[in-house]
Amino acid sequence: MIMKQHPFSAEQERIVADAIWTVASELRLIDVADLISMLRFERYADLADLVASAAEMYFLPGTIKLGIGGDFCLDWGGPPRVTLDLVIRPKNVTIYARLMLEQDCGGIDINHIAFDETPDSQDDATALLEESLRAAAFRPFVPAMQISRRVA
């Protein structure tokens, strides 16, 4: 299920993409066959360890975790694509998202964002999202090389 699109959705996806593109880049260093085999044979604990290891260099422990699994596309006619369900949990916010990893890029689709306390407006929600992700990160955000729901 994809989050209902609102005028602020693109901005929120951009914020999340800018925050986690380094994690996506780390995950893309893993052999795609290994990722696909972990998904195929339901080795979710191993996959969760890889996600945690990729995230621990950039975020506080426990900020980014594997969600309920993922999916892959491996057809004869095209390059492989791996999709991982993520739960991104900086302070005061929970983001449920799907991270798509491809050969040269990645993408993020936000399924749902839950705030511990409901913000007064969507602008406040977007600001809180960005502030929470920045506070959980070990480095300043640098915009992803390919925005428009893409991460490097």
How would you describe the overall organization of this protein?
This protein has 152 residues and is an alpha+beta fold. The protein has one domain (9-138). Helix content is 37%, strand content 26%. The chain has helices at 9-27, 32-40, 44-56, 122-136; strands at residues 64-73, 81-88, 93-101, 106-115, 150-151. A hairpin with a 4-residue loop joins β3 and β4 (106-115). α1 (9-27) packs across α3 (44-56) and α1 runs parallel beside α4 (122-136). It is globular, with a radius of gyration of 15 Å. The two termini are 24 Å apart. The relative contact order is 0.22.
Overall pLDDT, averaged? 89
Roughly how many Å is the radius of gyration? 15 Å
**Which series of helices and strands comes N to C?**
HHHEEEEHE
- For the report, how would you describe the main beta sheet? 5 strands, antiparallel
Question: Strands across the major sheet, in which order?
Answer: 1-2-3-4-5
**Structural class label:** alpha+beta
The strand count comes to 5
Gross morphology is globular
SS strand fraction:
25-35%
Distance between the ends: 24 Å
**Helix run count:** 4
> Into how many domains do the coordinates divide?
1
Detail the poorly predicted runs.
146-152
Helix content: 25-40%
